Amino acid sequence: MVFLETKEVVKQYDAHLALNRVSIQVPEQKIFGLLGPNGAGKTTLIRIINRITAPDSGEVLFKNRPLAPDDIYNIGYLPEERGLYKKMKVGEQAVYLARLKGLSDAEAKKRLKVWFEKFDILSWWNKKLEELSKGMQQKIQFIITVVHEPELLIFDEPFSGFDPLNTELLKNEILDLKAKGKTIIFSTHNMASVEEICDEITLINRSEVVLSGDVAEIRMRHKKHIFKLQIENENLNIDPVFCEILETGNHFHTHWFRVRSLQHLSNSDFLSLLLQKNEILSFEEEIPSMNDIFIQTVTKNNRI
Q1: Dihedral (C-alpha) 274, 275, 278, 281: value to the nearest 10 degrees?
Q2: What φ, ψ does residue 277 adopt, rounded to 5°?
Q3: DSSP category for residue 286
Q4: Distance from C-alpha of 244 to C-alpha of 254, rounded to nearest angstrom
Q5: What's the predicted TM-score (pTM) here?
Q6: pLDDT, tens only, 199-257
Q7: Which of 59, 124, 55 is nearest to 92 (CA)?
Q8: Which of 1, 91, 120, 189 is surrounded by the most beta carbons within 10 Å?
C-alpha cells in the first residue's frame, strides 16, 4: 500500500526550477530512500511534504487523500540543518518541542525520559545544548523527532556527526521503528546505508526523477554479467566466444580472475562451461553497489 505520494510536483524559485513534475510513491511501513546529488531538489520536496512550502502545481497525497494541515502532527522531521536552541537546557527544549507536536507536558516528560534513558543520556537533561558535542546534539534531535510517535518519519542525513558506534545505534533504532509499523523517508549521500536499510528508492537529479524502484531489483537490473572466480592453476582455460578475462591476480596458493560472460547465459550454464576445462574453487557474480549505480545514473543523466 502507498502511504505517501507526490504527483507531478513542480516548484520554481525565480529562474531556478527546483522540481520538475516529480512523482514518488512511499510504501507503507517501509524505508524509502530519497536520493540525489546536492541541489537535485530533495530538500525542496521534503519541505513540501512537511508543508513548510507549497508546490506551484501537482499534489501530495497522505494515505490516499490530499495532505491536510493537521497531518503535520503525524510527521516527524529530522532536517539536515539542525535547528535546536544552543542556550536552552536540553530537557526544557525537548519538552517544548514535543508539546508543539500535540503532547501534554506530563506525557512529553514521560516519553522523553524513556528515550533519554534508552540512549543513556538522562544526565544531560539540565545541560545547555551548547555544552554537548555535535553527536550528542544529534541524539537529542533524533529523540525530539520520534517522541510524538508519528506514522511518517523523515530523516535527512541522520548519521551526520556520528562515529561508527553511534551510527550503528541510530541505524538499529530506525530499523526498530520500521518493525513497529512506521513509514520512513530516508535521505542520505551514504549509499552503503541505503543498501543496508532501504527497501525502495527514488533518485532525483537536476530536479527530475531519474531512477526508482526496489533496491535489490535495481542492483540486479544494473549487473554487467561480471564474475570473480578462483582456481588452483595459473591459467584459466576459456572459450573467447562466451567469456573474456578482465583482471587476474594471486591469493596465497590460488589464482583469481574477474571475467565477463559474453553470451546471454544463466549463471549455472556459464559456470558449467567454465567447469568443462577448469577446476573452480569459488564462483561469485559481482552485483553493482548503489554507490556505483548512483554515480553511473547521475553521470549519464548529466550528459543528456
Answers
A1: 100
A2: -125, 0
A3: P
A4: 19
A5: 0.91
A6: 999 999 999 999 999 999 999 999 999 999 999 888 899 999 999 999 999 877 789 99
A7: 124
A8: 91
Residue of 129, 5, 142, 136 whose CA lies nearest to 64: 5
CB atoms within 10 A of CB 282: 10
All three cell numbers of 134: 555535535
Q: What's residue 225's pLDDT? A: 95
Reference 80, options 119, 43, 106; nearest CA is 43
**CA neighbours closer than 13 Å in the CB half-sphere of residue 240:** 0
**AA identity, residue 279:** E
Q: Cell numbers at residue 186, please? A: 530516508
Residue with cell 574477474: 258
Assigned C-alpha cell, 277: 576445462
C-alpha triplet 279, 281, 282: angle, nearest 5°: 130
- The DSSP call for residue 289 is P
What does the alpha-carbon distance between residue 188 and residue 282 come to, in Å, rounded to a whole number? 35
Closest CA to 126 of 167, 93, 158: 93
Would you state the cell numbers that stand for residue 143, as one nine-digit string? Answer: 529523540
From 21, 27, 77, 80, select the one nearest 49 (Cα to Cα).
77
Q: Which CATH class is domain 2-220?
A: alpha beta
Residue type, 48: I
User: What's the average pLDDT block by block, 10 residues per block, for the chain (304 residues)?
Assistant: 96 94 98 95 95 96 95 93 84 94 96 94 92 87 96 93 88 97 95 95 97 97 95 89 93 88 92 94 95 94 82
204 burial class (0-12, 13-18, 19+ CB within 10 angstroms)? Answer: buried
> How many angstroms from the chain centroid is the CA of residue 51?
22
pLDDT of residue 129: 87
Report the alpha-carbon distance of residue 61 to residue 2 in Å, rounded. 9
